[in-house]
Automatic annotation (TrEMBL):
GO terms for molecular function: aldehyde dehydrogenase (NAD+) activity. It catalyses: an aldehyde + NAD(+) + H2O = a carboxylate + NADH + 2 H(+). The active site is at residue 246. Residues 22-471 form the Aldehyde dehydrogenase domain. This is aldehyde dehydrogenase (NAD(+)). CDD domains: ALDH_AldA-AAD23400. Gene3D superfamilies: Aldehyde Dehydrogenase, Chain A, domain 1, Aldehyde Dehydrogenase, Chain A, domain 2. Belongs to the aldehyde dehydrogenase family. Its EC number is 1.2.1.3. Pfam families: Aldedh (PF00171). PANTHER family: ALDEHYDE DEHYDROGENASE-RELATED. It comes from Talaromyces proteolyticus. Keywords: Oxidoreductase.
Length: 479
């Protein structure tokens, strides 16, 4: 098949690639140069996409499940064939190092393919001579996927596969900061899905609310910040839309005194600094037992200082933060740390001499045992800043780990299996890891407790989130 070209970017409406009179563009966060033009969708474009989706839904939802499954698998194969171009575009638009962008493309293919293999047969509740009661799952209709800028491709694929497999039509709205891979993904989809089944609209801040308020969109799957998630929920309430929210996190990692620091520290370093900390399930608070705290801190700081920050096309471990607003937000954490008694043991800001480029770069910053009520502990920086804290008793550390409005992920690190089991069960989070963090699986439901979300994506739970339930009572021997 012909390779996709990545110079022009279009809205995808009813199978057609469209531009708009007014356009916008993203910024390469490493160079601060403008990226190519992208369309600026209007309410009229939304209405046209919704009308096309409604027509497409009627046909798509009637297709045999296996036909939809095969289309998704072929689509995933096409994405894999275009891996190099998608990865380069991801580095340009998002800033992440090229090897991490390649990992994101691989994960996107995996999330499409593995979710496409899921089956969701009807549930048989009663089956006697007199009566059969079954529940089946029917597609909701038109879904809109609203995606953030940190994993623009993988998070789009995570929503696309279950929506289309279950027979819905999907309108994808990428973040205005990272619209490029999402638009190309939908363009690629036109080779595999009938017109209107997969569409994409690029726009500014006004586009999300137009989708969430639209009377003929039936479901919103939103990934982004908790603050925006609340606005989305409020807006969806007016039309009683079905809603899944994947929101922010402030994941704690609890490190017990029996761990092997030689093997554990490098892993934790990876789970803290991946994507420059811009990952919902990055470790954002590290609680280390006081008896090994000095050694842990020393090893963590040494490894952190060896990491190279720079343009994703160079030999860098960390790219920039993705956009100016995020840069300002991370800076506000550094300013707050500067104003308090917190001790910074690695990082801080670059000086003008050692900046790796004009972009939104920070050195990864480690804060030594800040107070529990400091901003760096209570809030999600979503950038390369991490507090390391000391603990002494199990009850105390569990209480402190759970003392957050967020409940996305949490981990416990110990060789003691009983202790691991005991602590992990008390952690209030949607995903809990023992001796790892951040590992995800397209077949395992993923969702947040507390203000980290509502509902779950992926796995059979994820499929059901794009469905209505329909229960049949069949009286076999009518009177
Ligand atoms: P954001 O909330 O600013 O934006 C997310 C998306 O919502 C974007 O596409 C944006 O254009 C759109 N949007 C903005 N205002 C809207 C509105 N009023 N109505 C509808 N849509 C609107 O989030 P972000 O800054 O792009 O992403 C960072 C946040 O996302 C972090 O808090 C991070 O933890 C969270 N996140 C969560 C997960 C998860 O799965 N739980 C995954 C990745 C990121």
């Amino acid at each position: 098949m012909t390779a996709l070209e990545f110079t022009q970017f279009y809205n995808v409406i009813d199978g057609r690639l469209e531009t708009t009179v007014e356009t916008t563009h993203g910024i390469n966060p490493s160079t601060l140069e403008p990226n190519p033009k992208v369309p600026l969708a209007s309410e009229v474009d939304v209405n046209r996409a919704v009308a096309a989706a409604r027509m497409a839904f009627d046909l798509w939802s009637e297709k045999p499940l296996d036909e939809r499954r095969q289309a998704l698998i072929a689509f995933a194969d096409s994405l894999a064939e275009n891996k190099g171009a998608f990865a380069r575009m991801l580095t340009i638009e998002q800033g992440k190092p090229l090897n991490q962008a390649e990992v994101e493309v691989d994960a996107s293919v995996k999330w499409l393919k593995q979710q496409a293999t899921l089956s969701f047969p009807e549930d048989v509740i009663v089956d006697t001579e007199e009566q059969r009661v079954t529940t089946s799952y029917t597609p909701i209709g038109i879904a809109a996927a609203i995606v953030p800028w940190n994993f623009p491709l993988m998070l789009a694929c995570g929503k696309l596969a279950p929506a289309l497999l279950t027979g819905n039509a999907l309108i994808l709205k990428p973040s205005p900061f990272t619209p490029y891979c999402g638009l190309k993904l939908a363009e690629l989809g036109q080779r595999h899905f009938p017109p209107g089944v997969l569409q994409a609209l690029s726009g500014d801040d006004s586009l999300g609310p137009i989708l969430t308020e639209h009377p003929d969109i039936d479901k919103i799957s939103f990934t982004g910040s908790t603050a925006t998630g609340k606005r989305v929920m409020e807006s969806c309430s007016r039309t009683l839309k079905r809603l899944t929210l994947e929101l922010g996190g402030n994941d704690p990692a609890i490190v017990c005194e029996d761990v092997n620091l030689m093997t554990v520290v490098p892993q934790i370093v990876q789970y803290v600094w991946a994507n420059s900390g811009q990952l919902c399930v990055a470790i954002k608070r590290i609680y280390v037992h006081s008896s090994i705290y000095p050694q842990f801190l020393d090893a963590f700081v040494k490894m952190t200082k060896s990491l190279v920050v720079g343009d994703g096309f160079g030999a860098s471990h960390l790219g920039p933060v993705q956009n100016k607003a995020q840069y300002t937000r991370v800076q506000s954490f550094l300013d707050n740390i500067g104003k308090t008694d917190c001790t910074v043991v690695a990082g801080g800001d670059f000086t003008n001499e050692n900046r790796p480029g004009p972009g939104y770069f920070f050195t990864p910053t480690v804060v030594d045992n800040p107070p529990d009520d400091s901003m760096v502990v209570t809030e999600e920086p979503f950038g390369p800043v991490i507090p390391i804290l000391q603990w002494t008793s199990e009850d105390e550390v569990i209480r402190r780990a759970n003392n957050s409005d967020y409940g996305l992920g949490a981990s416990v690190w110990t060789k003691d299996t009983e202790r691991a089991s005991r602590i992990s069960k008390k952690l209030k989070a949607g995903t809990v890891w023992i001796n790892s963090h951040m590992l995800l699986n397209p077949l395992a439901p993923f969702g947040g407790h507390k203000k980290s979300g509502l509902g779950a994506e992926w796995g059979v739970e994820g499929l059901k989130s794009y469905c209505n339930t329909q229960t049949f009572f069949w009286t076999k021997k009518p009177n």
